[in-house]
Amino acid sequence: MQVNDQIVSVYIAAAVESFRRGNAQQADGIVNNLQRHIDGRQAKEAWRKLTDLGETACGKGNFAEADFCYQRALAFAECAVGLEDPDLGSVLTSMADCYLAQGKFNLAESLYGRVLSIYETSFGQRHINVALTLRNLADLYRSTGQKSEAKILSNRVDEILANEFNSNVGSCKPELGN
How far apart are the C-alpha atoms of 95 and 111, rounded to whole Å? Predict the structure, then answer.
């Protein structure tokens, strides 16, 4: 089967629609069939579309649909780039945010932790993506009453951002008009 981005979109829409109609088994069959016929670039497209659909469903409070989309997006992502690629951060963070919105704090914490580990390994401990993930974890800890843990992470975020700012001072000097 010759697959292009339009076909990827059609398959994903059909899978999500099957899930909405209560036929999760058929939805998984559609996703599995698509996964067998696409290359790495198309897998990235599929996981981005599924992540977007997951974010939309989560925003509407359709958590089962969001989870369906996120789980399949993660499967495409891991297949396309591996288990430790920083590109996984977007889908993992979206999943964690949705779990947080549902009050599933342990699941959210686990996913944020995975993102943090991937980013620290890929970019180092002082990267902006590390700071953003630490901020997410700090917010989670504040939500669950773990104020001292949240403060420790917030201080680390501030330190990273201050160093990021200081390393970029002078790199962009806007001209002020008269």
Answer: 8
CA distances from 127 to 7, 68, 132, 153 (A): 37, 31, 9, 14
Angle, vertex CA 10, rays to CA 9 and CA 16, nearest 5: 90
Range of the structural domain that residue 15 is part of: 1-82
**Which residue is associated with the tokens 């998984």?**
28
> Which parts of the chain fold into alpha helices (H)?
5-20, 24-36, 40-59, 63-81, 88-101, 105-123, 128-143, 147-168
Q: What is the mean pLDDT of the chain?
A: 91
Can you read off the two tokens belonging to residue 48? 């981005």
pTM confidence score: 0.86
Q: Does residue 174 lie in a domain region?
A: no
Looking at the structure, tell me whether residues 4 and 73 fall in a common domain.
yes
The whole-number pLDDT of residue 157 equals: 96
Nearest 5 degrees, angle CA 62-CA 8-CA 43? 90
Residue 84, CA distances (Å) to 11, 47, 98, 117, 119 in order: 27, 16, 21, 9, 9
Q: How many Å apart are CA 123 and CA 117, to the nearest integer?
A: 10
Reference 14, options 72, 62, 61; nearest CA is: 72
